[in-house]
Amino acid sequence: MKFHIVILLVLVLGVSSASGAGKLTKNFYKKSCPRAETLVRDITWGRAQSDSRLGAKLLRVHYHDCFVRGCDASILLDTVGTNAAAEKDARPNLSLLGYEVIDEIKSQIEKVCPQVVSCSDILALAARDAVSFPFKKQMWDVLTGRRDGRTSLSSEVNGNIPGASSNFTTLKDLFTRKKLNVNDLVVLSGAHTIGIAHCGPFSRRLYNFTGKGDTDPSLDKTYAEALKSQCPNPASPSITVEMDPQSSESFDTQYFTTVKQNKGLFQSDAALITDRAAAKIVDSLVKPNSFFSEFGKSMKNMGEIEVLIGNAGEIRKNCRIVNA
Question: Which segments within 113-242 are labelled E, that is strand?
Fold first, then answer.
């Protein structure tokens, strides 16, 4: 009887590990690679010093990774030969930037601790450190212990990545599927306080919202005209605008003030004030201390989406290719 119980327990633990259930921990590499987190921070801060938009770039890569197959660094894999296209080649991911920073960090860590630190943990840490650089301190804790996935398919991206034109119901349903709640949805949208966007994703709001050559009536008229002056119709792929006007390089609460003023750039931004509960959360996040605290909690929640732990997945030697 005891033997059967042991076998059952082993099977349960095996299933938990493979499905991504379990817990990440703080300082996972304390003994196996003590310098890991310091190396990530130092290299990221060095790059951020000459690239003020690095925080927005790496944060976006981390988001897009976690929402497809979980936080397993599948976004970092390149398409190989005639294999099916990888996630990074899907249309919503073509504008992602910052991969070379992850490559540099991985290369340096491999010299010190070969095949110990996962690419997925490096991405989570680097995203935090890039955003934290202007503050010269860690803006939130990152739990570690993730392992890397071996599959990356562009066909799995659509339907999992929140779209710029999504309404509130669509956003809520997507976040619910990832085991994130409305508070996480609103808080994580605050990442739009940094970074830039190409005109294409919001061009329809400006020029053909209902298919009749009109402008989205929920968009502040003055702001809409300002956007039109920057983004011609049809949209040019070479033109970008700030996601948070006059504050796109500052990780702050200006985004939520902007959304309240009907100046959210995307329909997904404007959607946050179409729901009563979400609108109340927007109001509460205008205070810096509240936003920073809540953002850290929601980043922790997002960072735990379908993670691979234990013996699941692998620790890649190179973040762009699976191990042989």
Answer: 196-198, 240-242
